[in-house]
Design brief:
Belongs to the PEP-utilizing enzyme family. It catalyses: L-histidyl-[protein] + phosphoenolpyruvate = N(pros)-phospho-L-histidyl-[protein] + pyruvate. Helix content is 45%, strand content 14%. The chain has 324 residues and is an alpha/beta fold. The longest helix is centred in the middle third of the chain and has 20 residues. It binds phosphoenolpyruvate (PEP) and magnesium ion. Magnesium ion (MG) binds next to helix 10.
Amino acid sequence: DKKEWFQLVNETTLTQDGRLIKIGANINTPKDVHTVLSNGGEAIGLFRTEFLYMGRKELPSEEEQFEAYKEVLIKMDEKPVIIRTLDIGGDKGLSYLQFPSEINPFLGFRAIRICLQEQMIFRTQLRALLRASAYGNLKIMFPMIATLTEFQEAKNILEEEKDKLKLAGIHFSEKIEIGMMIETPSSALMADHFAKEADFFSIGTNDLIQFTMAADRMNEKVEYLYQPYHPAILRFIKMIVDAAKKEGIWVGMCGEMAEDERMIPILIGLGVQGISMNVHSILRARSLIKKLNRVEMQALSERLLNLTTGEKVIEELEQSIKIN
Ligand code: PEP
Ligand code: MG
């Protein structure tokens, strides 16, 4: 219950057999940080920066962005803060940045695709991030990466902005980790190669499920296909985690699946090291994880990977774990 959960506010998150799992929060604005801390968040696992760009008439300036990122980093006091670069397009539009309308916006001009073409926008954000990095433990994450070339281009642009700041004598952290969302099937399939280029992965199941099942996440008619428990999704998660482990990089999840009580045991079993979620789900997740045995969850997830349908996965889960 809630009272029991709040006793866990200042605790780390350990499974029953002592495996450390990091629980972070997904936030949209710097104002959210207060509730992250009061709800026991150990990190910001996903700062969706597009919200700084929404509900206004023009692009936010470098200075405005710098102040926002700096505020989050200072308030988090050296705890990890993963800031994702602009993920606009798909379901999130900007009134002042209109591109030709598209038949398939989720498959269209969005996120890193816009940033690599409209580099003024991207570079402004990267400079703001670099300057803010001096104030805390910043990690930068790129969204919707589909190819290695995109990831390399994004990193090259970041390096160019670092060089410019150095020349100008502007201070930034030399230790910023650069990671990526794994939310396209191509990046999941190529995760072994990406793991050599990235410092960390964060699995974005909201998009990964819709692209894997070819079912628009906003379309009710095909909702029955949007199946987080489908073995195809579990197999992808396993591939991604195994690729990350092989190269020794950190792997977390920030899609909505990460806060699902039935899913958390599977994620622990598959070896996900961190989960990031809505702030109000953090303590419930911590309380659940304390009751889980990692070795048992590993055996359970091995069984689930070999089932044939999402329904069978749910059935097996319900028989194996009694969540109270
Ligand atoms: C995701 O796709 O799982 C994700 C976390 O990103 P968003 O929901 O912002 O697309
Ligand atoms: Mg996404």
